[in-house]
Design a protein that fits this description.
By secondary structure, this protein is an alpha/beta fold. It is built from ten helices and nine strands. The protein folds into two domains: 171 residues, 3-Layer(aba) Sandwich (Rossmann fold); 95 residues, Pantoate-beta-alanine ligase, C-terminal domain (Pantoate--beta-alanine Ligase, Chain: A,domain 2). The protein has a six-stranded parallel beta sheet with strand order 1-4-3-2-5-6, sandwiched between helices. The chain has a three-stranded antiparallel beta sheet with strand order 7-8-9. Helix 2 packs parallel to helix 3, helix 6 crosses helix 7 and helix 9 runs antiparallel to helix 10. It is globular, with a radius of gyration of 19 Å.
């Protein structure tokens, strides 16, 4: 596996890389990231190249968020990438990606206004900016993203559509612990008591999805189920949002017939956990 740390090296690598499938990450990698790289490896077969990136993007962190304490575990991350099947990892410094006097940024004005974007203003502008830069640098033919951050996936699809990036986007199912908790770099922030309650997020989502499959299509009733389950089983959690939206437009739904998404974000002290389930016939 090749490690590249500069744009100059990356440009030279890309000239000989052929077809590339790309898995961008912010590091602090876990089994969820490994599954994305393995999926990319399977898509690539023996002919194409699997590229990943490890870059903690400062533009997507708010002033009171965890940029400074976000885990940096490069050596372990590189070992995971290699074991999962990556051929190249791009791991630049912040100055390598952003000029000190940078003055251009991509702004998203629709899909980012709800869900996580409502409480993290500017976050998805930072995501769009760095993903656009990485797409320009790596020039992938395809890219792989997890469905755990469904809003991010929807926005990246819109980014590719609106700015005509020649990149096919793949959304991969969320990887979970044995008790259902979605794998996340921020799970390591949880205390033992918080970790014991955190699986209630997926349990609540699963109960609401089961009710929908049984014929409950009204969002109000589905939300009641979610709130009741969380109140009973996640008393240490503080809800940021719980929403039922169209999975393409992210607009709220009163009735869910098909193509719905239940998404939530819950704080356990300083750890903000997100999760979701699709409602698809």
């Amino acid at each position: 596996m090749t490690l590249i740390e500069t744009v100059k090296e990356l440009r030279a690598w890309r000239k000989a890389a052929g077809r590339v499938i790309f898995v961008p990450t912010m590091g602090a990698l876990h089994e969820g990231h490994a599954s994305l790289i393995r999926e990319a490896r399977q898509m690539a077969g023996p002919e194409a190249t699997v590229a990943s990136s490890i870059f903690v993007n400062p533009l997507q962190f708010g002033p009171n968020e965890d940029f400074d304490r976000y885990p940096r575990t490069l050596e372990a991350d590189l070992a995971l990438c290699q074991e999962a099947g990556a051929d190249m990892v791009f791991a630049p410094t912040v100055p390598e990606v952003y000029h000190a006097d940078r003055s251009i940024q991509i702004l998203e004005s629709s899909l980012s206004k709800a869900l996580c974007g409502a409480s993290r203003p500017g976050h998805f502008d930072g995501v769009c900016t760095v993903v656009a830069k990485l797409f320009n640098l790596v020039q992938p033919d395809e890219a792989v993203f997890g469905k755990k951050d469904y809003q991010q996936l929807a926005i990246i699809r819109r980014l590719v559509r609106d700015l005509n990036f020649p990149v096919e986007i793949h959304g991969i199912e969320t990887v979970r612990e044995a008790d259902g908790l979605a794998m996340s770099s921020r799970n390591r922030y949880l205390s033992a008591a918080e970790r014991a309650q955190a699986p209630a997020l997926y349990a609540a989502l699963s109960q609401a999805r089961a009710a929908w499959k049984d014929g409950v299509t009204g969002s109000r009733r589905l939300l009641e189920i979610l709130h009741q389950t969380l109140a009973a089983s996640a008393s240490l959690g503080r809800k940021d949002y719980i929403s039922i939206v169209d999975r393409h437009t992210l607009q709220p739904l009163d009735l869910v017939q098909n193509n719905g998404l239940i998404a939530l974000a819950v704080f356990f002290d300083k750890a903000r956990l997100i999760d979701n389930v699709e409602l698809i016939r």
